[in-house]
Amino acid sequence: MSPTIERVLGSGRNWPLHGIAASRQIEQRNAVALAPHSLMRRAGESVARLALAIAPHAQRVWIACGPGNNGGDGLEAALHLQRLGRQVCVTLAAPAQGLPDDARDALARAQAAGVQPQASLELPFAPELVIDGLLGLGATRAPAGDIAQVIARLNRVEALRLAIDLPSGLHADSGRLLGDVAVQAHHTLSLLTLKPGLFTAHGRDHAGAVWFDALGVDSGSGDALAWLIDAPRIADARRHAQHKGSFGDVAVVGGAPGMTGAAWLAARAAHAAGAGRVYVSLLDADAPTLDLHRPELMARPQWWTSSPPVLQASTVVCGCGGGSAVHAALAVLLSRAGRLVLDADALNAIADDPALLALLVQRSAPTVLTPHPLEAARLLGRSTADVQSDRLAAAHALAERCRCVVLLKGSGSVIAAPGGAPAINATGNALLATAGTGDVLAGWIGGLWAQSPSVPAFEVACAAAHRHGRAADRAAERGHGGPLRAAELVDAMLG
Is residue 360 part of a domain? Predict the structure, then answer.
């Protein structure tokens, strides 16, 4: 494989992600600077190299090419694979005369090498590898007509599927599905720039393993739409002379009747993350005040009524299992807590009460919100579908509105802060889709932040999200057979 092709997830690097507009500008700028057709020829060679690496024994290759430069990349790949002795069938789902200049050049080169593109979906063989070069970067509408038929056929083929740049039918910026059909790739080779949509919303499900080739071009990071975070910056260095007071106090306020488990889970996570002391202030006055499995956690009824200096010095996690009872504590915490993590019912209470929202916006102390899509929708006054249609934009809008850091949970969790480019967390999988894992994340943020109070909230949230998802990834690698139970997740995050 070409040394310029890199596997993205699990690389231990932070990657700039470029949206459609910036990617187009980078492409146009370099197309002028380089010899004609250079970028497409590099792209096609890169696709062929990756194809050989992921399917070294595949002899029969079907390449589906569309009407734009994505199709041209596929034609260039066909040229190289044909020369290397593979049986190549190209379906060209577009009139040849309508192709852009680079793609027309690629078509002529492929034909000269013996590739004969066809319009038919009747294949001369059962393919062992399928390459998707149908739509690519510029697609903003649902696949229709011949393209939709080719996508449906491509997904039915029992063969390894490689998408060029991004799976056809997936929006490059947001990761939303453009229509009812989209390519379900096993591998995706992103070219020139990495696209945000590959890593959030439906991207992870449709892109498979994501690879990147910059095509010999330095895309830069100044115009990045977002960042993929796979290398958090917080160092964990404890000195011999430190003591428990050196690592801060966390107070968890939550646990209304019937939901006390959420508060204890958050507290366990805060302690496991490294907080020196963890207090649990349950909102159910009749609940037991001892976690028998973690007796080091200390119950403190109505902790939020502590003196202002205590509140100011602490890191508070509020809302886990809070129910409607959390409302009484919120006004005090929003006004006086030093560092504040707001989750679950705390977010719902703020969404329902303009006075609480005003206190949140007016806070001068750092705050992290950890909504799932429905909670984010309530805070924004939108629908959940609207939030999920552009998760980057929704997280950014919520961060700007509330003037704090937002960690929008879900596939490709998004972390946003006012005035900056958002981040997408590189780790995590569906093993986290079970009750209580969000409480663990909120608690871990609190515990991490308590011992590193000078670290910006954005960096703390990125580091916690990464650790949270990494625990699930490691469980998946070990063959974990079902959802990762929240209590197990706390221990798994220690690894």
Answer: yes
Looking at the structure, do residues 262 and 201 belong to the same domain, yes or no?
Answer: no
Same domain? For 402 and 302 the reply is yes
Beta bridge partners of 474: none
Would you give the DSSP letter of residue 160?
Answer: E
Number of H helices, E strands in the chain: 17, 18
Phi, psi angle pair for 456, to nearest 5°: -55, 145
The low-confidence residues of the chain, meaning pLDDT below 50, are none
Which strand (E) or helix (H) includes residue 253? strand 249-254
Q: Could you give the CA distance from residue 130 to residue 312 in angstroms, rounded to a whole number?
A: 59
Q: Structurally, how many domains does the chain consist of?
A: 2
Is there a single domain that holds both residue 291 and residue 177?
no
Backbone angles phi, psi at 205, to 5 degrees: -70, -30
What pLDDT, on a 0 to 100 scale, did the predictor assign at position 2?
59
Residue 461 tokens read as 């949230």
Whole-number pLDDT of residue 1: 53
Asked whether residue 400 is domain-assigned, the answer is: yes
Amino acid (one-letter) located at 85 = G
Residue 110 structural domain: 5-222
Question: Residue 391 and residue 2: Cα distance in Å, rounded?
Answer: 33
Cα–Cα distance between 319 and 463 in angstroms, integer? 21
Do 417 and 339 sit in the same domain of this protein? yes
Of 33, 343, 483, give the one whose Cα is nearest residue 217.
33
From CA 122, how far away is CA 141, in angstroms rounded? 26
Tokens, residue 150: 């080719």
Give the integer Cα–Cα distance in Å for 348 and 354: 11
